[in-house]
Amino acid sequence: MKHDARIAILYPGDYEARQKATPENNRFAQVFAALQDLGVNALPVVYHDDFFAEVRQQLLTVNGVLVWFNPIQDGRDRTILDALLREIAALGIFVSAHPDVILKMGTKEVLYQTRHMGWGSDTHLYASLEDLCQTLPVLLSRGEVRVLKQYRGNGGLGVWKVELAAPLAAVNEPPDTRSPLPLDTLVNVRHAQRGSVAEAITLGEFVTRCAAYFANSGKMVDQVYQPRLTDGMIRCYLVQDKVVGFGHQAINALYPAPPGAHLGEAPEPGPRLYHPPTLPEGQALKHKLEQGWVSEMQQLLGIETESLPVLWDADFLFGPKGEAGEDSYVLCEINVSSVAPFPDSAVPYIAQAALARTEAARQKRGD
Description:
CATH architecture of the largest domain: 2-Layer Sandwich
CATH class of the largest domain: Alpha Beta
Structural class: alpha+beta
Strand order of the largest sheet: 5-10-6-7-8-9
Number of helices: 10
Shape: globular
Strand content: 15-25%
Order of helices and strands: EHHEHEHEHHEHEEEEHEEEEHEEH
Protein backbone atom coordinates (compact mmCIF):
# COMPACT_ATOMS: atom_id res chain seq x y z
CA MET A 1 0.00 0.00 0.00
CA LYS A 2 1.34 3.40 -0.99
CA HIS A 3 1.31 6.13 1.66
CA ASP A 4 2.02 9.79 1.12
CA ALA A 5 3.61 10.03 4.58
CA ARG A 6 7.11 11.49 4.69
CA ILE A 7 9.31 10.28 7.54
CA ALA A 8 12.81 11.62 8.19
CA ILE A 9 15.56 9.68 9.90
CA LEU A 10 17.86 12.18 11.60
CA TYR A 11 21.41 11.25 12.59
CA PRO A 12 24.73 13.11 13.15
CA GLY A 13 27.26 13.98 10.51
CA ASP A 14 29.15 16.77 8.79
CA TYR A 15 28.02 18.79 5.80
CA GLU A 16 29.75 16.51 3.32
CA ALA A 17 27.86 13.53 4.76
CA ARG A 18 24.65 15.55 4.53
CA GLN A 19 25.20 16.31 0.85
CA LYS A 20 25.97 12.67 0.03
CA ALA A 21 23.28 11.08 2.21
CA THR A 22 21.03 8.45 0.65
CA PRO A 23 18.74 5.86 2.25
CA GLU A 24 21.36 3.21 1.44
CA ASN A 25 24.67 4.70 2.64
CA ASN A 26 24.15 4.81 6.40
CA ARG A 27 23.66 2.40 9.29
CA PHE A 28 19.86 2.73 9.13
CA ALA A 29 19.54 1.32 5.61
CA GLN A 30 17.37 -1.56 6.87
CA VAL A 31 14.94 0.86 8.50
CA PHE A 32 14.75 2.95 5.33
CA ALA A 33 14.03 -0.20 3.32
CA ALA A 34 11.35 -1.37 5.76
CA LEU A 35 9.63 2.04 5.65
CA GLN A 36 9.78 2.05 1.87
CA ASP A 37 8.26 -1.45 1.83
CA LEU A 38 5.32 0.05 3.73
CA GLY A 39 4.95 2.72 1.06
CA VAL A 40 6.53 5.50 3.11
CA ASN A 41 8.69 8.21 1.60
CA ALA A 42 11.67 7.96 3.99
CA LEU A 43 14.52 10.44 3.74
CA PRO A 44 17.89 10.82 5.48
CA VAL A 45 18.51 14.02 7.43
CA VAL A 46 22.12 14.50 8.56
CA TYR A 47 22.32 16.97 11.46
CA HIS A 48 24.94 19.22 12.99
CA ASP A 49 24.43 22.39 15.01
CA ASP A 50 26.37 24.35 12.39
CA PHE A 51 23.60 23.90 9.82
CA PHE A 52 20.55 23.48 12.05
CA ALA A 53 18.59 26.16 10.15
CA GLU A 54 18.87 24.14 6.95
CA VAL A 55 17.75 21.00 8.78
CA ARG A 56 14.81 22.92 10.26
CA GLN A 57 13.54 23.82 6.81
CA GLN A 58 13.80 20.18 5.79
CA LEU A 59 11.93 18.92 8.85
CA LEU A 60 9.07 21.34 8.20
CA THR A 61 8.32 19.31 5.06
CA VAL A 62 7.90 15.91 6.76
CA ASN A 63 5.18 14.24 8.83
CA GLY A 64 7.42 12.35 11.24
CA VAL A 65 11.01 12.27 12.48
CA LEU A 66 12.97 9.36 13.96
CA VAL A 67 16.03 10.65 15.81
CA TRP A 68 19.32 8.87 16.51
CA PHE A 69 21.57 11.36 18.30
CA ASN A 70 23.66 10.83 21.45
CA PRO A 71 23.36 13.07 24.54
CA ILE A 72 27.00 14.04 23.95
CA GLN A 73 27.95 13.98 20.27
CA ASP A 74 31.42 15.11 19.15
CA GLY A 75 31.83 17.12 22.33
CA ARG A 76 28.49 18.94 22.04
CA ASP A 77 25.22 18.40 23.86
CA ARG A 78 21.73 18.38 22.35
CA THR A 79 20.54 21.82 23.48
CA ILE A 80 20.10 23.26 19.98
CA LEU A 81 18.77 20.03 18.48
CA ASP A 82 16.27 19.48 21.29
CA ALA A 83 14.91 23.01 20.91
CA LEU A 84 14.41 22.33 17.21
CA LEU A 85 12.68 19.01 17.86
CA ARG A 86 10.34 20.59 20.40
CA GLU A 87 9.41 23.25 17.87
CA ILE A 88 8.74 20.64 15.19
CA ALA A 89 6.67 18.50 17.56
CA ALA A 90 4.62 21.52 18.65
CA LEU A 91 3.57 21.92 15.01
CA GLY A 92 2.04 18.44 15.08
CA ILE A 93 4.91 16.57 13.42
CA PHE A 94 5.61 13.21 15.08
CA VAL A 95 9.01 13.11 16.82
CA SER A 96 10.60 10.06 18.40
CA ALA A 97 12.13 10.17 20.81
CA HIS A 98 10.67 13.49 21.95
CA PRO A 99 13.18 15.42 24.10
CA ASP A 100 10.69 15.59 26.98
CA VAL A 101 10.33 11.80 26.96
CA ILE A 102 14.12 11.45 26.93
CA LEU A 103 14.30 13.63 30.06
CA LYS A 104 11.73 11.41 31.78
CA MET A 105 13.14 7.97 30.98
CA GLY A 106 16.42 8.35 29.09
CA THR A 107 18.64 9.76 31.84
CA LYS A 108 20.27 7.94 34.74
CA GLU A 109 17.77 9.58 37.11
CA VAL A 110 15.23 6.97 36.02
CA LEU A 111 17.22 4.45 38.08
CA TYR A 112 16.45 6.47 41.20
CA GLN A 113 12.83 7.22 40.33
CA THR A 114 12.06 3.54 39.72
CA ARG A 115 14.25 2.12 42.50
CA HIS A 116 11.25 0.59 44.31
CA MET A 117 10.08 -1.35 41.25
CA GLY A 118 10.89 -5.02 40.73
CA TRP A 119 13.94 -4.07 38.69
CA GLY A 120 15.24 -1.62 41.31
CA SER A 121 18.22 -1.76 43.65
CA ASP A 122 19.76 0.34 46.43
CA THR A 123 20.08 3.66 44.62
CA HIS A 124 20.91 7.22 45.68
CA LEU A 125 20.57 10.48 43.77
CA TYR A 126 23.20 13.18 44.23
CA ALA A 127 21.89 16.59 43.15
CA SER A 128 25.15 18.27 44.16
CA LEU A 129 28.77 17.48 44.97
CA GLU A 130 27.87 18.14 48.62
CA ASP A 131 25.27 15.35 48.47
CA LEU A 132 27.92 12.97 47.17
CA CYS A 133 30.37 13.98 49.91
CA GLN A 134 27.77 13.37 52.60
CA THR A 135 26.56 9.96 51.44
CA LEU A 136 29.24 8.10 49.47
CA PRO A 137 31.82 7.99 52.32
CA VAL A 138 29.16 6.47 54.59
CA LEU A 139 28.23 3.78 52.06
CA LEU A 140 31.89 2.90 51.50
CA SER A 141 32.46 2.71 55.25
CA ARG A 142 30.01 -0.21 55.28
CA GLY A 143 32.24 -2.09 52.85
CA GLU A 144 29.85 -1.57 49.95
CA VAL A 145 30.97 -1.40 46.33
CA ARG A 146 29.20 1.39 44.46
CA VAL A 147 28.71 2.39 40.83
CA LEU A 148 28.28 6.12 40.20
CA LYS A 149 26.81 7.41 36.94
CA GLN A 150 26.51 10.91 35.57
CA TYR A 151 22.99 12.11 34.80
CA ARG A 152 23.38 12.15 31.01
CA GLY A 153 26.07 10.44 29.01
CA ASN A 154 26.87 7.56 26.69
CA GLY A 155 29.66 5.13 25.95
CA GLY A 156 30.49 4.62 29.63
CA LEU A 157 31.42 8.29 30.10
CA GLY A 158 30.99 9.35 33.71
CA VAL A 159 30.30 5.83 35.01
CA TRP A 160 32.62 4.78 37.85
CA LYS A 161 33.01 1.73 40.05
CA VAL A 162 34.29 2.69 43.52
CA GLU A 163 35.40 0.44 46.37
CA LEU A 164 37.82 0.46 49.28
CA ALA A 165 41.38 -0.38 48.31
CA ALA A 166 41.78 -2.41 51.50
CA PRO A 167 39.28 -3.83 54.01
CA LEU A 168 38.62 -1.66 57.03
CA ALA A 169 39.71 -2.80 60.44
CA ALA A 170 36.98 -4.62 62.33
CA VAL A 171 34.70 -2.27 64.26
CA ASN A 172 31.88 -2.88 66.68
CA GLU A 173 29.56 -0.27 65.16
CA PRO A 174 26.57 -1.56 63.18
CA PRO A 175 26.90 -0.71 59.46
CA ASP A 176 24.06 1.83 59.60
CA THR A 177 25.79 3.89 62.29
CA ARG A 178 29.37 3.91 61.05
CA SER A 179 31.15 7.20 60.58
CA PRO A 180 31.92 8.41 57.05
CA LEU A 181 35.38 7.67 55.72
CA PRO A 182 37.94 10.50 55.67
CA LEU A 183 38.79 11.87 52.24
CA ASP A 184 42.36 10.56 52.45
CA THR A 185 41.04 6.97 52.43
CA LEU A 186 42.48 4.97 49.53
CA VAL A 187 39.88 3.65 47.06
CA ASN A 188 40.03 1.66 43.85
CA VAL A 189 38.15 3.32 41.00
CA ARG A 190 37.51 2.31 37.42
CA HIS A 191 35.92 4.33 34.64
CA ALA A 192 33.54 2.38 32.40
CA GLN A 193 34.78 4.09 29.24
CA ARG A 194 36.49 1.63 26.90
CA GLY A 195 40.25 1.48 27.45
CA SER A 196 40.11 2.65 31.07
CA VAL A 197 41.93 0.70 33.78
CA ALA A 198 41.39 0.55 37.51
CA GLU A 199 43.56 2.75 39.70
CA ALA A 200 44.06 3.44 43.39
CA ILE A 201 43.48 7.07 44.44
CA THR A 202 42.20 8.84 47.53
CA LEU A 203 38.51 9.34 48.06
CA GLY A 204 39.14 13.08 47.93
CA GLU A 205 40.73 12.76 44.50
CA PHE A 206 37.73 10.82 43.28
CA VAL A 207 35.35 13.47 44.60
CA THR A 208 37.35 16.10 42.70
CA ARG A 209 37.00 14.09 39.49
CA CYS A 210 33.24 14.01 39.94
CA ALA A 211 32.91 17.78 40.32
CA ALA A 212 32.57 18.32 36.57
CA TYR A 213 29.48 16.10 36.43
CA PHE A 214 27.54 18.61 38.54
CA ALA A 215 28.14 21.56 36.22
CA ASN A 216 25.07 23.06 34.55
CA SER A 217 22.65 21.47 37.06
CA GLY A 218 24.13 18.02 36.52
CA LYS A 219 23.50 15.11 38.87
CA MET A 220 24.87 11.66 39.64
CA VAL A 221 23.14 8.40 40.48
CA ASP A 222 24.78 5.88 42.82
CA GLN A 223 23.80 2.20 42.62
CA VAL A 224 25.07 -0.73 44.62
CA TYR A 225 27.39 -2.93 42.53
CA GLN A 226 25.91 -6.22 41.33
CA PRO A 227 28.30 -9.16 41.94
CA ARG A 228 26.65 -11.15 39.12
CA LEU A 229 27.95 -8.67 36.57
CA THR A 230 30.29 -11.49 35.57
CA ASP A 231 27.24 -13.43 34.31
CA GLY A 232 26.83 -10.84 31.57
CA MET A 233 24.46 -8.04 30.69
CA ILE A 234 21.11 -8.47 28.94
CA ARG A 235 19.86 -5.64 26.75
CA CYS A 236 16.16 -5.67 25.91
CA TYR A 237 15.14 -3.74 22.79
CA LEU A 238 11.62 -2.35 22.84
CA VAL A 239 9.37 -0.67 20.32
CA GLN A 240 7.07 1.33 22.57
CA ASP A 241 5.80 -1.31 25.05
CA LYS A 242 6.77 -4.46 23.12
CA VAL A 243 10.07 -6.37 23.39
CA VAL A 244 11.42 -6.86 19.86
CA GLY A 245 14.85 -8.35 20.50
CA PHE A 246 17.71 -8.99 22.88
CA GLY A 247 21.42 -8.36 23.10
CA HIS A 248 23.78 -10.29 25.38
CA GLN A 249 27.25 -9.13 26.33
CA ALA A 250 29.25 -11.68 28.32
CA ILE A 251 32.15 -9.33 29.16
CA ASN A 252 30.93 -5.80 29.73
CA ALA A 253 32.23 -2.53 31.12
CA LEU A 254 33.50 -2.79 34.74
CA TYR A 255 34.09 -6.54 34.39
CA PRO A 256 36.60 -7.33 37.16
CA ALA A 257 40.15 -8.60 36.85
CA PRO A 258 40.69 -12.31 37.62
CA PRO A 259 41.13 -13.12 41.33
CA GLY A 260 44.64 -12.24 42.46
CA ALA A 261 45.44 -10.35 39.27
CA HIS A 262 46.57 -6.75 39.05
CA LEU A 263 43.81 -4.12 38.81
CA GLY A 264 44.87 -3.28 35.28
CA GLU A 265 44.32 -6.84 34.03
CA ALA A 266 40.53 -6.57 33.81
CA PRO A 267 39.36 -7.61 30.33
CA GLU A 268 38.04 -5.15 27.78
CA PRO A 269 34.31 -5.37 26.98
CA GLY A 270 33.48 -8.02 24.41
CA PRO A 271 30.97 -8.06 21.55
CA ARG A 272 27.22 -7.94 22.04
CA LEU A 273 25.37 -10.84 20.41
CA TYR A 274 21.89 -10.15 19.06
CA HIS A 275 18.81 -12.34 19.31
CA PRO A 276 15.13 -12.20 18.30
CA PRO A 277 12.38 -11.70 20.90
CA THR A 278 11.77 -15.46 20.89
CA LEU A 279 15.11 -16.16 22.64
CA PRO A 280 14.19 -18.85 25.21
CA GLU A 281 16.51 -17.45 27.88
CA GLY A 282 14.86 -14.05 27.57
CA GLN A 283 11.23 -15.03 28.02
CA ALA A 284 11.06 -14.50 31.79
CA LEU A 285 12.45 -10.97 31.46
CA LYS A 286 10.27 -10.27 28.41
CA HIS A 287 7.19 -11.27 30.41
CA LYS A 288 8.16 -9.04 33.34
CA LEU A 289 8.63 -6.06 31.04
CA GLU A 290 5.53 -6.48 28.89
CA GLN A 291 3.18 -7.60 31.64
CA GLY A 292 4.16 -5.18 34.38
CA TRP A 293 7.38 -3.22 34.48
CA VAL A 294 6.87 -1.00 31.42
CA SER A 295 3.36 0.06 32.44
CA GLU A 296 4.51 0.61 36.03
CA MET A 297 7.32 2.82 34.76
CA GLN A 298 4.86 4.74 32.60
CA GLN A 299 2.64 5.44 35.59
CA LEU A 300 5.57 6.59 37.72
CA LEU A 301 6.99 8.87 35.04
CA GLY A 302 3.75 10.06 33.44
CA ILE A 303 4.33 8.68 29.93
CA GLU A 304 1.45 7.56 27.70
CA THR A 305 2.02 4.44 25.60
CA GLU A 306 1.71 6.51 22.42
CA SER A 307 4.59 8.69 23.65
CA LEU A 308 6.98 5.81 24.37
CA PRO A 309 9.93 5.88 21.95
CA VAL A 310 9.66 4.00 18.69
CA LEU A 311 12.91 2.32 19.78
CA TRP A 312 14.52 2.19 23.20
CA ASP A 313 16.47 -0.33 25.22
CA ALA A 314 16.89 -1.35 28.82
CA ASP A 315 20.08 -2.91 30.20
CA PHE A 316 19.83 -5.48 32.97
CA LEU A 317 22.31 -7.27 35.18
CA PHE A 318 21.43 -10.43 37.03
CA GLY A 319 20.46 -9.83 40.64
CA PRO A 320 20.32 -12.34 43.50
CA LYS A 321 18.63 -15.66 42.76
CA GLY A 322 15.31 -16.36 44.43
CA GLU A 323 14.53 -19.19 46.84
CA ALA A 324 13.61 -21.49 43.95
CA GLY A 325 16.77 -20.57 42.04
CA GLU A 326 15.05 -18.21 39.64
CA ASP A 327 16.90 -15.17 38.36
CA SER A 328 16.14 -11.61 39.33
CA TYR A 329 17.06 -8.64 37.16
CA VAL A 330 18.46 -5.22 38.07
CA LEU A 331 18.06 -2.26 35.73
CA CYS A 332 21.32 -0.41 35.16
CA GLU A 333 20.46 1.87 32.24
CA ILE A 334 17.76 2.90 29.78
CA ASN A 335 18.90 4.18 26.40
CA VAL A 336 16.59 6.34 24.33
CA SER A 337 18.55 8.98 22.42
CA SER A 338 20.48 6.81 19.96
CA VAL A 339 19.80 3.08 20.14
CA ALA A 340 22.07 1.44 17.57
CA PRO A 341 22.96 -1.12 16.51
CA PHE A 342 19.90 -3.26 17.17
CA PRO A 343 18.72 -6.78 16.25
CA ASP A 344 17.40 -7.37 12.74
CA SER A 345 14.20 -8.60 14.37
CA ALA A 346 13.45 -5.04 15.53
CA VAL A 347 13.38 -3.49 12.06
CA PRO A 348 9.80 -4.31 10.94
CA TYR A 349 8.43 -3.28 14.32
CA ILE A 350 10.27 0.05 14.12
CA ALA A 351 8.86 0.76 10.67
CA GLN A 352 5.30 -0.24 11.56
CA ALA A 353 5.28 1.81 14.77
CA ALA A 354 6.80 4.84 13.05
CA LEU A 355 4.14 4.76 10.35
CA ALA A 356 1.30 4.24 12.83
CA ARG A 357 2.38 7.13 15.05
CA THR A 358 3.03 9.40 12.08
CA GLU A 359 -0.41 8.71 10.62
CA ALA A 360 -2.00 9.34 14.03
CA ALA A 361 -0.19 12.68 14.24
CA ARG A 362 -1.32 13.59 10.73
CA GLN A 363 -4.91 12.76 11.56
CA LYS A 364 -4.76 14.88 14.70
CA ARG A 365 -3.20 17.72 12.73
CA GLY A 366 -5.82 17.42 10.00
CA ASP A 367 -3.37 16.69 7.18
